[in-house]
Design a protein that fits this description.
The complex is a heterodimer of chains A (357) and B (236). Chain A is an all-alpha fold and 357 residues long. In chain A, 72% of the residues lie in helices and 3% in strands. Chain A starts with a helix and ends in a 26-residue tail after the last helix. Chain B is mainly beta. Chain B starts with 6 loop residues before the first helix and ends with a strand. Classes of the chains: A mainly alpha (357), B mainly beta (236).
Amino acid sequence: MSVAGVLRRSPSGSTVERADPRSTEPPYRTWALVTLAVLGVALIVMPAAFGMFARAPKGAVMIGEFRPFMTSSRLDGFQQDMSEVNAGVQQSQLSVGAYLTGSSTPDLGGGAAFRTEFPSFASFAGQWGAIDADMTGLLDRVQANLGNYEAVAALPSFRLFPWFFVVPGVLVLVLVATLFVSSRRRRTIRWVLVALGVGLVLAPAVFQMFGRAPKGGQMMSAFKTIETTSNVETIQGYFGTMAVGQGAIRLELVPALERKGLSPSEIAARFPAVATLDARWVHILNDMTPMIGAMSDNVANYQAIAALPPFPLFPYFFVLPGLLIAGVAIAARPGRRREDQVSPEPSEQPSPVGSQH
Amino acid sequence: MRYRFNPRVTLGLLVLVGLAFFVIPSTSADASGSGAKVLVGTFDLNAGSCSGTNPTGTYFRMIYPGGTIAAGKFFENPDSTCTTDQSYTLASPGSQGGLTNGKYQADPTPVFASTGSALASSIIEPQAFTQINFSIATNPTDPQTGLAVPAPLIKDKNGKLSGQVEAWSADWNNLHFNQGSPKPGGAKPGLTQAVSGTYNAKTHAFVLIWASAVVGGPFNGFTGYWHLQGTFKPKK
């Protein structure tokens, strides 16, 4: 029995029925089935059209690689690192400079003699203000987006997102195809389609996407100027400058203090911020270097996600197709059979189109 | 009894012979037939020195992204003992004297001390780099990329050295940075330069240089420039 032999267009052209002589169910509206098929195809095609199969996994990688750093304690730790460096630099500039040059009044920058004797530190100290402002500002922005990050991280894995569209799309197509070729359980299939649509409508609510996706959008906006190659290179440059500066404090200023007769304990007592920076520098490197690495490694991942449609739209990518599928499936409800559409009872008179026994 | 020619057995033997030809390193000539000889032994390193006009011995420099090998900008290591130019980080030979040709000199276990300082000490002694020691190892699996890499292999052709140090890996601050040339997989990104150098067959004096872009991690985009100098010690 051919498909052509199975399907029969109604005289009005608005319904499709299978001329199954045993069918007691009414035929379906052609436009409804076609619309459902189009929606199914659209759901399948959409992830590919947006490049989600390539981009969404990169988002998952970025979220995963940021996870160790995106905690209150870790971010507070970075802020403390910066505060300790700042305190050490300020104390070196003012108090240590004054002590080493014998000045009674601390001079910002340590005075000309100090700058001449310790050019590496002086160079670093001259750059420190801008570095501190930039780095602290960056950390502030990241910390302000901790909640937004957590909201995004609480969503299902980005790797799954393309499949959240493809799987319903395939289901819709399978169900529509079933409606075409089988007269059995048409009402059930229609209600399954309605349920599928409702499921798509509810999915964003279940995953709290209405709240989380806009937060993700805010995070992406905030990271727009952070996750760039040039910004990462700037921070790498800061790192080099800070390393030189800390080296100057550790290897030039502290030995100079020792030459002045101060013991390590006296240096620690008189210049606690310098001693703290000296003692904590390795920890600061241990702490901050991997963060720079994560920032650097995720520039491409960030850009891949940024190329997706804006996060706040994502819930509606589920809701709109869901509403359409449910609505069309409901609208596809066959009306009462008109006389000219009613198939004869199988026991009485087989359909002329489908009667190829 | 008459011997029967079995094509499968013959093919298998041929494959085995072929594999052996490639896998077992030649002690005198490379497989390409280019005339380049694989030097079997260890490139014993001279410690880096800044006493002369130009640094000599074994050292490394790190070039900022956007820089050039010739002109930098170079990362300054405050712990460099090269006081005239702290962009040179001088190295001294490790417990095995230097780079053993054709063999891995793997990371120890653990790789790092609690401070993040590297503990590998076969090729070079760990050197302070911004207060945390870095060192070098060559592992069958590159620890940064997770890719399988061949053991370093340097060849000499009429006094000119070439080859690959794909497995050359710098350990620092609980991190691994592949510093090989070519990079694992054979690429030469950025300023990566092939291994080159000179070899005096009489005195065994050698100089090996290469550059390797850092791919990934906190120093992504930087380039390491490596200068190994010393005396080749043939395997007895």
